[in-house]
Amino acid sequence: MGERGTSHSVTVEVNGEKVSRIVAARQLLVHFLRDTLGLTGTHIGCDTGNCGACSVIVDGKLVKSCMILAPQADGATIETVESLAQDGALSPLQESFHEHHGLQCGYCTPGMLMSATYLLRQNPEPTDEEIRRGIRGNVCRCTGYVNIVEAIREASRGQATERRSVQATAGEEV
Amino acid sequence: MTITSAPVTGEATKTWSGRAMPRKEDWRLVQGQGSFVDDGGMYGQGYAWFVRSPYGHARIVSIDCEPALSMDGVYTVLTGEEAKAMCEAPFFAIAPPPGSLMQEWPLAVGKVRYQGDAVAVVLADSRETARDAAERIVVEYEPLPAVTEGVAAADPTAPLLYDEAGTNVVWHGVFDYGDVDWALENADHVVKLDRLHFHRFSSTPLECNGAVVDFDHGTGMVSVLSNYQMPMFAAMVIGPTIGVPMNKFNFVTKDIGGAFGLKIGFYPQIAALALLSKKAGRPAKWTEFRTEHMLTAGHGNERTFIDIEVPVMADGTILGVKARAFDDAGAYLHYEPLGAVIWSQVVPGCYKLKHVRVDYTEVVSNKCPVTPNRGYSRMQHLWMIERIVDVVAHELGLDPVEVRKRNYVQPEDYPYETPNGCIYDSGDLPRSLDIALELAHVDEWRARQRELGTGSGRRIGIGIGSTLDSGTNNFGQSRIINPELPFSGNGEVAIAKLDLFGEINVNLGTTPQGQGHETTASQVAADILGVTPDDVTVSTGFNQANNAYVGFSGTYASQFAVTGLCAVMGAAQKLRHQIVKLAAFALHADEDEIELAGGVARVRGDEERAIPFIGLANMVYTNNAGLPAELLNECDLNARYAYVPPFEVPDTVAKTGNLTLTYASQVHVCVVEIDEETGEVKILDYAAVDDCGKRINPLVVEGQVHGATGLGIAASLYESLDYDESGQLEEPSFYEYHVATSLDIPNIVCGDIESPSPFTPNGAKGMGEGGGAPLHAVCSAIQDAIGAGGPIVTDSHNHWARVYEMLQRAPGAPRGVEVISRSAGSDTGATSL
Ligand code: FES
Ligand code: FES
Asked: How much is the pTM?
């Protein structure tokens, strides 16, 4: 029973928790997350690396988890959609997707949110053009992308306002 | 035990319907907590993998399963012949002969008819083992000549897919309304087009198909956990084949990752999995992968129109159209040939065409079977009508805006009866067009277009797409195809329930795939029961065990706002009636004194006399001694309501009748820029004006408009499914298919007007499919950019190479159009037509 072929031990930190598993050499990272760890928030939409439904953040970089093998991720720190909400509170991006109807079927959403999270870390105040470039690897078949772009834009504005007010307050204090 | 918590917290005074409320289902979906089909499973399941044909057309000589069966971890293999032996009959055929002779079984028997046709299915202890085992199965094929073009397939000399049918023609019929010959004789101009081709594409939901099926030998129950979008249709089609009665199925859906009609097509896989599970004695789980989806899950209908003749008066009044249509259904008839009649819901399009004759032929070919795809069958016809209107304007030198406005059904014409007896309920097309033109800044772009002139290497084009999104089918139209069919009308069911602790629950027969049913159903129920939408729980997806279904249940064909929400309305009103009755009894008041507010029933004007819903539930479920039997009989707090729209059976000989209850309309305006050097088309401005009657949740409606527009633009410029002559699909993955990304779809500006439907209890119209308006608008914009005297845009798909070819086509080369004008002298008074 079980997987045939060679096996590897994989140790990763997923959403702040260290896990070790023995997996088949050929197991994709996305199957490791979904099937082995039960983190089914990360989805699969294609087999050519075109759709981004499987996007996660590995060691700070945005990665399509269907495009690497689980053993290749050994030692890595992985963030999936399950890490975004903290203590029952949605992240500003999650909140904004909800407010601006940035999702319909919700199947692309986890990957989209991870790409957007990565984008805003790199570029906290992207233009619409930059947002569109940032999510070009994530296919959505439901929304025509309109409200996704809006949701990311509004989340970035919200965060920017917050940041500015924090900076302003800090400035006053100095 | 103390029971104190009142589950309902609502504000009584608000009205929730009509509000742009963010959706309730988002909470789980943004956290990755949705429950999609591959996320779940059943105890002891094996993993299924289909063995599929690499050929477009071939005879199956032999299948050797031994190499797979001898592998460790393989439970079993089921071949086509074996599956057939386990069946009682082929799948139910919608078509009369010869279409009914084109039989289909759960797996291919004797021959394969398209690339990807399934010849066997493996069950193993892991997905990887199943896949490896499938590769080890040796199938010997004898390749046969293929036919991959619709018009050619109808030719008696074409290779036959089904020898037993003796033809590739599934169904043929003439739809003849008014007197088109007379119109052609008496018109000032006749515009003739040789050929218009609506291409094959698919809206490819991001989640592929999937199912976990268990055949329980003990009870005979077949449990199907899947993302199938019209469950009882599947049950009705496969039940008689695999010998399972309706009450032995339990279809369940949960979250569905998009469907667009395409998830109606995979019932053969469900049947094969049921037999596989029966053979193996354990559940079978199958998750389709993308290439498998592209090859086999179903494509949208491809339709070729030839010999098109359009009678037009000098002032631009279009009298009608005459054409021959060939619909290519692909290799098997999944839901087909319903497409051969469904287009006739919109015979004259948005216009007052009076004389229409369409000679309609549907064929099979060696391609993937077609399946309903967003805009199903109507958009192909509407596209043809829009091309005609556009070409008429261009060829006669008339303003495309004016020609549309002159020919539109006018606001004062509603309810408007079409030549085939359909009733357009309401709308204001001229105003929709004006708003769309303004939103797309057409005046500015016209000025820019003039400025650019020739020699800049760039061209600007402005296009219009007017369309209808007909919703709530009268299934009686299927009898126009086959008078023997036992179908007519439509319907949907909802159950509203007050649960033991006073919780409000709604169960539906629908299978939402992003349309926000949990939210909109809550809004409707909340208004009726005096609570907030958060106080209403709407069960996710479909569950046959809930008993909230009719045969038509599901989510497809633009109907939820009418069928689904009117069912919710009816169920909630029934429940309200029971609550009021119980409260009147408990509070010693008259029923008309009772009001519901915030989860409490109280006496109007005397708020001290009140009983919370939990108290009423207690009276019925757990504390009912001494209550009058009459009251308990009437008030079980479990209100099931079936909404049935008012329909008659159509006239199957004349092919007339009211085929659809509502007609939402959309007018799109698109501005493109074409690079003459490359043929590349860039969208500069895009506006869509939607009129779907009363909107229950404008946010959801706008999302649907965006989505349909995005998919239409994608199809018009990027996405096409093409086969070579041997039947090989050229775009079997997202990579080749160039699935549209955020860089391909422009910002879409939306406008709306609300013309309530007089025919629905809530004034709403079904919407969501969108009627393919972007295909119309983009073609029209490219036509405008090409300009007078250039070739006619004859294909719905216009990727850069095709546009480049049109720009390069030599002056004097065939343009695909001809205008025959009667000289003024021979005018016999045709203008009075
Ligand atoms: S599943 Fe990874 S890119 Fe599509
Ligand atoms: S919301 Fe369905 S694919 Fe994006």
From this structure: 0.95
